[in-house]
Amino acid sequence: MTRIGERIALMVVDLQIGMMDGVKFPPLVEHQALLAKAKALIAWARGCGHLVVFIRHDGQSAEALAPGATGWPLHPALGRREDEPVFSKSVGDAFSESQLARWLRSRGVERLVLLGAQTDQCVRETVNGALANGFAVTVASDAHGTWDWAGETAAQIIKRHNALYAAAGALVMSTDEIAARH
Q1: What string of DSSP letters covers the chain?
Q2: Which of 11, 20, 81, 156 could form a disulfide with 27 if both were Cys (CB 3.0 to 4.6 A apart)?
Q3: What CATH code is carried by the domain that includes residue 156?
């Protein structure tokens, strides 16, 4: 449960054009719904005066998410504002670079609300990194996405990871529940 006055930051993980444009690989399953949930949470965070932080994956050259590639930019539908920082990473965990944790702590952030892509990769690693760095974490259960993989549907992977996030100590709540409680 959140505390009254707790400083919150919304963290948008890897919602980049290449995750949804279908050029190098299929778009995330239900990517339009994911973008709509992300936009709703961004509007909620801004309206409540919470910080909004974007994470961008920097892939290797010739990859869809390589710096400068057409798939690398954050998805324009998110409407990132100039005063909202972007932290780049080249591995799954956004906390692999100490700048992010330092920036959040310097602003008094205690709780992170996470959403983005990919459920079973960078979102999972960033949830674990945030918890390991001492942040309270809320995961938007309906605002992270992936692909069907290894005999599981995206919905099954998301459900399984929501349970893993909760077992690790994160709150797991829907977009509507987050907006109502935080």
Answers
A1: -PPTT--EEEEEE--BGGGTS-SSSPPPTTHHHHHHHHHHHHHHHHHHT-EEEEEEE---TTSTTSTTSTT-SBPGGG---TTS-EEEESSS-GGGSHHHHHHHHHTT--EEEEEEE-IIIIIHHHHHHHHHTT-EEEEEEEEEE---BTTB-HHHHHHHHHHHHHHHT-EEE-HHHHHHH-
A2: 20
A3: 3.40.50.850
